[in-house]
């Protein structure tokens, strides 16, 4: 067994407390978090998280297929603008 398996998953304690409070109250508001490195345990399934991307928050609904992944995997921090804009222009000229 690898050492990482012995240590267990990393889940931010403040985030776990927020989830427990939300489940006790029974409301369905999004939980705002900056903890992108936290793993998703089965207790998070069915909840909505607002995950910080560096300049804004992205709402992510947690499903069963996301369990075991990190929160940050579902909120991209960079915008892909595309490749080849210069190449297209030079090809059209020839």
TrEMBL record:
An individual GO BP term: ribosomal small subunit assembly
One cellular-component annotation, GO: small ribosomal subunit
The keyword Ribosomal protein appears for this protein: yes
Keyword 4Fe-4S recorded: no
Transmembrane segments: none
Stated family: Belongs to the universal ribosomal protein uS19 family.
Function: Protein S19 forms a complex with S13 that binds strongly to the 16S ribosomal RNA.
PANTHER family in UniProt: RIBOSOMAL PROTEIN S19P FAMILY MEMBER, SMALL RIBOSOMAL SUBUNIT PROTEIN US19M
Protein's name according to its UniProt entry: Small ribosomal subunit protein uS19
Lineage: Bacteria, Candidatus Amesiibacteriota
Encoding gene, per UniProt annotation: rpsS
């Amino acid at each position: 067994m690898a050492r990482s398996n012995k240590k267990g998953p990393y889940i931010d304690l403040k985030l776990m407390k927020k989830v427990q409070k939300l489940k006790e109250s029974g409301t369905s508001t999004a939980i705002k978090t900056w903890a992108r490195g936290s793993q998703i345990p089965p207790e998070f399934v069915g909840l909505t998280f607002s995950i910080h991307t560096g300049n804004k928050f992205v709402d992510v609904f947690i499903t069963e297929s996301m369990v075991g992944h990190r929160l940050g995997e579902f909120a991209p921090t960079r915008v892909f603008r595309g490749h080849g804009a210069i190449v297209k222009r030079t090809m059209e000229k020839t």
